[in-house]
Amino acid sequence: MLLTIAVVVVSLLVFLDWLSKKRRNDASAEIPGPAILPIFGNYFMFTMFNTKDVMKVMKHHDILYNGFSRTWFFNRLSVLMSRPKDLEIVLSSTRHIKKGMLYDILGLWLGQGLLTSTGSKWHSRRKVITPAFHFKILEQFVDIFDQQSTILVKQLKKHSIEEKPFNVYPYITLAALDVVCETAMGVKVNAQTDPGCEYVRAVSDITEIIMHRLANNFIQNDLLFAIFASKEKRRQDEALKILHRFTERVIERRRVSLEKELAEKQSIDDPADDIGSKKKVPLLDILLQSTINGQPLTNADIREEVDTFMFEGHDTTTSGICYVLYLLSRHPDVQKKLFQEIRGVIGNDKEIPMTFKDLQELKYMECVIKESLRMYPPVPIILREFTEDTNINGYVVPEGTQLTIPIYLMMKNPDIFADPETFNPDRHTLENSTEKVNPYAYIPFSAGPRNCIGQKFAMLEMKSAITKVLRHYELLPLGEAPDPVINLVMRSTNGVNIGIRQRVY
């Protein structure tokens, strides 16, 4: 009896598998890729290994199939693409803007904000948020960058006395969190001096849980997560409750306060027109004063965008800063040249605040950051979903296909970047950057209409933090090398280890 039931179930699964794949198989039959198993496809090729092994499999496929290949996960077709000429078709288009299915997990925290939304909602939100990154608003945030970087160097001081290796990642995480809270919401959470704060712990918890789920296929499904990881599910729900409650309270308080301020002024100014004033304009204020189709954004709409900025603005920037510090500690010649540029722009006073103009003049610093982003991109992969049949270099990619863009592989392609494993900031100087490199070959901030809206913000924040650290400390090549893991954000299983010594001018 049991055998009969098993045969019936297996037969049904095989039939359904064949039925669901048929149309897409017909369309994608010519796309190169590994052999597939009935029902499971190539599932076991990726799920029986850890993250690092998956990276090796992706790299192997990327080389074997010349940057364009397909795999099946049960009845879900996925395409791996790394050729710049192919990526331009997708990334430059306003039609191919839907994020991949894995981003659905982020929706628990971020809802349908700018990172996860698509279609008309994404277009309208992008238009609303763009003024928040006007250069005059960014100029106002430089004070916040400098203040939080000052706290950062004080927190690091104990390690300069010991001159022993330490993991710099937790320190940068808290500094970046302080920055993004103040610039996004206009509130101080004092993460660096009070890491036990309820909100700070909740951000840490939800980020850790999301990254764990994204790296583990089995618990990406909400039902399976609730059944087989119930303790972590409760921890996730508690963190979400704290995060959403905090953001909602800040929004409501600021809405009331802003209405009072505007009433006193007897007029409502466009925040983008008022950006020359000394008052800082956080993202929250711009959202509160914005409309879509004549209607103001609801508190839920605003929370989605604030939470999105919180996620994107602290984890990715943390990764970017940490790997720059690591590479500088291992390349004393580059560190020396960069420090000389900093002294030439700012002088010898360690305590004098940096200005927007100072940061703009650090041209070699830009080259250093760009090269670090090439070697250790904070967002190592991009995931999209095709919403219509698309011709890619003679192959038809069917609607519904998941797209993986392995940025971390592309930017180490020796056919594009000579000697790609070598840290060489000079490859990004003005004279060298004139080389004929496809603009879709170097995309640490993505590219096209869905590129990172906050990339100028991130560059300024990174410049500020790195400059402040180098003005106070010499970076030493201590500790083990990072062990990078690929997720939505580039991390390291063993931290990012450096040593520091008090800087003597």
TrEMBL record:
Which Gene3D superfamilies does the UniProt record give?
Cytochrome P450
- State if Oxidoreductase is listed as a keyword: yes
One Pfam family per UniProt = p450
- Residues holding heme: C452
**What GO MF annotations does this protein's record show?**
heme binding; iron ion binding; monooxygenase activity; oxidoreductase activity, acting on paired donors, with incorporation or reduction of molecular oxygen
Q: Which PROSITE patterns match?
A: CYTOCHROME_P450
| Coiled coil ranges | none
Q: Where on the tree of life does the source sit, at the highest rank?
A: Eukaryota
Q: Which family does the record claim for this protein?
A: Belongs to the cytochrome P450 family.
The protein depicted here goes by the name Cytochrome P450
Annotated organism of origin = Hermetia illucens (Black soldier fly)
